[in-house]
Amino acid sequence: MNKKILIAITDDYIRGIYAEFLQQENFLILETSDGEKALDLAKKEMPNLILADVYLPKINAFDLIKILRKDESTKKIPVMIFEQFEREEDKLKALEVEAKDFIIGSLITPRELLLRIQIHFGIQKTYRIPIVNGGKDIKQLATDLGFGGNLTCSKCGSPLLLYLIRDLSKGKDYFKVSFVCSKCG
After folding, report:
1. What is the pLDDT of residue 92?
2. Given 1.10.460.10, 3.30.465.10, 3.40.50.2300, 2.115.10.20, which CATH number is that of 4-121?
3. What is the pLDDT of residue 133?
């Protein structure tokens, strides 16, 4: 069975690009540019995932999540928040309402969005490996990836995790490597 994704983004052009790309990847796509319609579609269609624009008219993405969480039938539908340009206060608010992810449209390609969706559905394998007593090789890898050999988060000071993500577009043995904060993500 194909996964059903509701794309609720105000910009018709951006919504159309994501919808077309995800349809080509065999997802069933529902579309709207309005928060009330997104809520109605969520209740009627029970999508497996919602991509909701922060600035939806009538019901914004944050309120949409709050309303969905109050209804027993929709409370478990994961919502990824979409915003064209990152605003720190919106990113924090997304964490508060327990959004599944925070997508910044100006910084993400359709392929990267697909990757995040595949990770969410377990189609794409990822590994988050705690770094315990980072040895010389781990510190060198951190330096090579632009972390300067420091294995703690520059924002909160928490330990970093070694993050591996399989890139199926390049083959089953190809992984992208990064470091992520154990708290900030």
Report:
1. 85
2. 3.40.50.2300
3. 62
